[in-house]
Structure formats: structure tokens, C-alpha cells
Design brief:
alpha/beta; two-stranded antiparallel sheet
């Protein structure tokens, strides 16, 4: 069974990152292994000029993978805009319980929308809408949580996406 994806969506500067950063520890305390994938609509560059990985990329490598004990980073050219499931299928093993995506508001991923002013401040596909997080009244048939209801949102996520059972070997690792 593929790792489930839940996406947090909303307008720019609505507090998506801050809310995600508050939800992750709740999930981790409950035993979840979480990966996050952020959509950067205007591009990005994380590699540092002068470092070996940057130099490899500048020399023409299409992908650069950096490995150390316990960590991996990948800098890779991609042919088009990848979807979260593409990242999941290429980079994440089956030990993860959940992927939290930030963005992809027009995709059909199960989603939680952060609303600051009014529903509709950013167009959102209603497909897969799990909940709304806002301090404003919202008239929808999905649950409405306040901006400080982090544990309640985490509980909803855990109910919708239960942790997968761990084998004896995984529990020891």
C-alpha cells in the first residue's frame, strides 16, 4: 500500500508552514514516521556555491546525491513538475507512515486548507477536502478547526491515515 499523502493548502503567507511545523511533533509523538514535500512555485536553489555538490552540478551532472551516516540529499534535474506521488515512489521507502505536502492545491490529494480571511481567497479543489483551519466562520460540510487546534487536526489526520503496523525488525531499528 502506498504511503498516504495529505496536503496543506492556502494562499501565500497564510501560515501553512507554521501549522505543519506544529502538527509534525504531534504525529511523531504518536509514533508516525513523517516525510514532507513542499511545492516551491517560483523555483529554488539549495546547493551552496563552491561546495563539492555544487561543483559537480556546475560541471554538468544531472543528479548529485550526497550521503553521510544517517542522511541523504539529492539535487536532480527533473523533466517537468513532479507530483508528490512521483517523489514518494522515487525517494521514500515503505517505512514512512505519512507524507505531508505543502501546496498542490489543485491536485486531488486529501487536503486541509488554511484560511486567514475568507474561503475562496485562493481557489481550492473541493476534491478530497478533509478540513478547514481558520479563525473565521466557514460554511462547509467538513470539520472546522481554529488556528491553535493543532492536536485536533493531528487527531483527524491519525484517524484518516492510521499508522501502518510495524514488524518486529522495524521496531528494533
Amino acid at each position: 500500500m502506498p504511503i498516504p499523502i495529505v496536503s496543506f493548502v492556502g494562499r501565500s503567507n497564510s501560515g501553512k508552514t507554521t501549522f505543519i511545523e506544529r502538527v509534525i511533533p504531534e504525529l511523531v509523538r504518536a509514533g508516525y514516521k513523517v516525510a514532507t514535500v513542499k511545492h516551491a512555485g517560483h523555483g529554488f536553489d539549495l546547493d551552496t556555491e563552491g561546495k563539492d555538490s555544487w561543483r559537480h552540478k556546475q560541471a554538468g551532472a544531472s543528479s548529485v546525491v550526497i550521503l553521510s551516516k544517517g542522511s541523504m540529499a539529492v539535487f536532480a534535474d527533473v523533466s517537468d513538475q513532479l507530483k508528490v506521488e512521483d517523489v514518494r515512489d522515487r525517494l521514500l521507502d515503505d517505512t514512512y507512515d505519512l507524507i505531508i505536502a505543502e501546496g498542490w492545491k489543485h491536485e486531488g490529494y486529501p487536503k486541509i486548507v488554511i484560511v486567514r480571511d475568507q474561503l475562496g481567497e485562493v481557489p481550492i479543489s473541493p476534491e478530497g477536502l478533509l478540513a478547514v483551519v481558520s479563525d473565521k466562520p466557514v460554511d462547509l460540510t467538513v470539520p472546522l478547526f481554529g488556528l491553535d487546534d493543532v492536536s485536533a487536526v493531528a487527531a483527524l489526520i491519525m484517524k484518516q491515515f492510521p499508522r501502518r503496523a510495524r514488524s518486529e525488525h522495524e521496531l528494533e531499528a
